[in-house]
Specification:
The structure is a single chain. The protein is about 60% helix and about 10% strand. It is mainly alpha-helical. It starts with a helix and ends with a helix.
Length: about 170
């Protein structure tokens, strides 16, 4: 297996888990027919149809808007795929694979249904720190945090001069 295949494998796994979870929620569980499906005191399934992207941005309620959003998110996915194909760091490969898999799952929803199926409702009583989301959304969010932390920490290491090259030169 090529070194950069890891990220594409992660993308495939995230995509498959996202679509499987959406199928379970809308198929066997029929959450769309219920108001809520309670799992834990702080977590339930609440079916929603998301016409936009994160935080309700770029809400596409028309056919033109829908396909423009498919094109935009598709272009972003292609860019992430190219980045992933060139990335050498394995942690970044995994994170980019998570972004790609989550994005492809949401793009497929938008193509098939005209909206993205969201269902995961995390809350503390009536306080909801997050909008209702899906597996792909969670993967993208976690991956972005990983990429940001890696970028911040690698810059911090470079600023300190603690890279391996510095250690060898000063030895």
């Amino acid at each position: 297996m090529k070194a950069r295949s890891l990220g594409f494998l992660v993308a495939l796994i995230v995509f498959a888990l996202d679509q499987l979870a959406k199928w379970i929620v809308t198929g066997p569980l029929h959450v769309q027919d219920l108001e809520h499906f309670y799992l834990l005191p702080f977590f339930q399934f609440t079916y929603t149809q998301n016409n936009g992207i994160s935080l309700g941005l770029l809400n596409a309620t028309t056919e033109v808007g829908r396909w423009m959003l498919v094109a935009l998110t598709g272009a972003i996915a292609v860019g992430v795929g190219f980045w992933l194909g060139r990335e050498k760091n394995r942690i970044d490969q995994v994170a980019l694979g998570m972004v790609l898999g989550g994005a492809l799952g949401n793009i497929l929803d938008r193509v098939r249904h005209g909206y993205v199926v969201d269902f995961a409702d995390l809350h503390i009583g009536t306080f909801r720190p997050f909008l209702i989301f899906n597996v792909g959304d969670a993967a993208i969010s976690i991956a972005v945090v990983i990429l940001l932390l890696r970028a911040f920490l690698s810059r911090k290491d470079q600023a300190k001069g603690s890279g391996p090259e510095e250690t060898i030169e000063h030895a």
